[in-house]
Amino acid sequence: MTIPKLLMWLKLRSMLCAQVALIEHDRILLLRSGGNMGWELPGGIVAPPEPPEATAIRALGQKTGYELRDSPELLGVFPDLERVTPRLYFAVFISCNFTAPSKLPVSSSGALRWFPRDALPQGASPLCRKVAGVLVD
């Protein structure tokens, strides 16, 4: 099954989130939302007809202020490793080519930090750990 067909199948039968792993040297950008949420990749829920890549890029800008200089690469589609929501999947994109914000967006709540890919913080989501592991290998 091709990636576009897989993404269409997931959208019809499941909830799909799209996230971006920004990489700078050996570090990855993580976001901690308000409340007791742990560290996660910036992103949002895909609402058709918006494609997953567009959702990831839009949510990245809204939540962090970072802008991509080119199209991100699809790293993969992963199931919810915490099994919080049945049939929840994450389309994770990766980019090393971006522009940093001059200031965080007003809508940003929580913390935004760069972490070494091989030393993620306590509270990093299982998905963050999986993505960082794929990138380190």
TrEMBL record:
<dbReference type="GO" id="GO:0003824">
    <property type="term" value="F:catalytic activity"/>
</dbReference>
<dbReference type="Pfam" id="PF00293">
    <property type="entry name" value="NUDIX"/>
</dbReference>
<dbReference type="InterPro" id="IPR015797">
    <property type="entry name" value="NUDIX_hydrolase-like_dom_sf"/>
</dbReference>
<feature type="domain" description="Nudix hydrolase">
    <location>
        <begin position="13"/>
        <end position="137"/>
    </location>
</feature>
<dbReference type="InterPro" id="IPR000086">
    <property type="entry name" value="NUDIX_hydrolase_dom"/>
</dbReference>
<protein>
    <submittedName>
        <fullName>8-oxo-dGTP pyrophosphatase MutT (NUDIX family)</fullName>
    </submittedName>
</protein>
